[in-house]
Amino acid sequence: MDFDTIAAISTPVGEGAISIVRLSGPEAINISNQLFSGKDLNEVESHTIHYGKVIDPTSEIVADEVMITVMRAPKTFTCEDIVEINCHGGLVAVSRILEIVLERGARIAEPGEFTKRAFLNGRIDLSQAEAVMDVIQSKTNQAMNVALHQLDGKLSKLIIELRQALIETIAHVEVNIDYPEYDDVEEMSHEMMAEKTAYVHDEIDRLLQVAQQGKILREGIKTAIIGRPNVGKSSLMNSLVQEEKAIVTDIPGTTRDMIEEYVNVRGIPLQLIDTAGIRETKDIVEKIGVERSHKILQEADLILLMLNYNETLTDEDREIFSLLEDLNFIVIVNKVDLEQQIDVTELTELARGSAIITTSLIQEKGIDDLENALADLFFSKEIASDEATYVSNARHIQLLKQSKTALEEATNGLALNMPLDMIQIDVRRTWEFLGEIIGDTASESLIDQLFSQFCLGK
Questions:
Q1: Are residues 303 and 355 in the same domain?
Q2: Boundary-marking domain end, from 315, 348, 378
């Protein structure tokens, strides 16, 4: 497949020691050679780096002192010639070099186009391409490990194995139908097809069993901290983040808007949201914050409801509990260093089996218990981040569910003793759904949409 030459800045925008302009395509080396004062890049060995200067060929002004890496096809990320120009960090130098590169014939890369070319040139499949972005966006070591396993192709290998089992079954049925005179070909029976489909079904079911954990590791748990004013919500946020992110005072209503921060709890990424205290108020600004707190309840994956140990339960507390029906929540009773006023019996009834954790944030007590409760709620056992076929991508999970449904329909057909050529329609649907995961049967519009979500220069 023939492509033009693309270029983009591949490092984050802002001040830093080094910035990189990356080129990929048939003219990458030639374009770079036109502006490089140093060795002749057309003559250098592949995968070598060279010191010199970038000079604007039009004005002959030095743009920057650089190190240029030359990597020749096909042993590159995109399977094309790649040049990376390492210049000084900052906005001016790297922007100037990119401008010169574009003037010499390259075009600016679209978001994710380098990775897209790696996919289109057959170096990686679609699931591996998506794993590239997962690696970049990983917020914990476990999430990184899951993404690296997928990038390494472990999920792809299993999907290919399952598709191979299905296509062999389909081919066997079609040979029996089209060439009945071949006596040396074993006739596919209902029992043989049931055995093949059961194997694939069990493997898909195994993937789906750990899919929710994988999705949590990839996307995190949207966690809202709620409660009446001045129960310690902002103190809890600061304790988990280990930084003074939220203002803490004895004045009720200090937090008037949502404060968001990611935190790593036992390998689980939490997207913490410190909300305004839920109460009746005439303050217009605080009222808006309370309304947002109510809204976030319906959007959160987990609610941390905070109460005070030294206060009796109020009607407002009871109303908050009523809002939490059918939601995942943990009750945190704060300020256990003070005299007990809360009714533990009523609290237990209101919690309806949810975990109740006692804390004294001022004395830094109870955070470990809270972290254990979080892990127990979402992970019934230790996170197996080295699981070779962890599924974490929502698109993959949906396709696996569709595959499982199609196989179950095939199983129902087998139980009714339907003709095998009818049953294989559902088997083929399964094969196609699995193919969408690795990109074999994915549409061009889906591929474009997926890569458009990548960052520029990747």
A1: yes
A2: 378
Length of the chain: 458
Q: Which domain holds residue 194?
A: 132-210+390-452
Q: Tens of pLDDT along 260-294?
A: 787 887 777 888 887 654 444 444 444 444 556 56
Has residue 124 been placed in a domain? no
Q: Tell me the pTM.
A: 0.71
Phi, psi for residue 451 in degrees, rounded to 5? -75, -20
Is the pLDDT score of 54 beyond 70? yes
Tokens of 353: 């089996």
Q: Is the pLDDT of residue 210 over 90?
A: no
**Rounded to an integer, what is the distance from CA 199 to the centroid of its chain?**
29
Q: What percent of the chain has pLDDT over 90?
A: 40
* Strand bridging mode 221-227 / 18-24: unpaired
Determine the pLDDT at residue 97: 94
8 A C-beta contact, residue 272 and residue 287 = no
Least confident piece of the model among 229-233, 274-278, 399-403, 443-447: 274-278
Confidence bin at 179 (pLDDT 50/70/90): low
123 belongs to a structural domain: no
Q: Is residue 115 part of a domain?
A: no
From the number of C-beta atoms within 10 Å of its C-beta (0-12, 13-18, 19+), residue 405 rates as: middle
Local confidence band at 250 (pLDDT 50, 70, 90 cut-offs): very low
Q: Does any domain span residue 402?
A: yes
By C-alpha distance, which of 381, 334, 374 is closest to 355?
Answer: 374
Q: Does residue 443 carry a pLDDT above 80? A: no
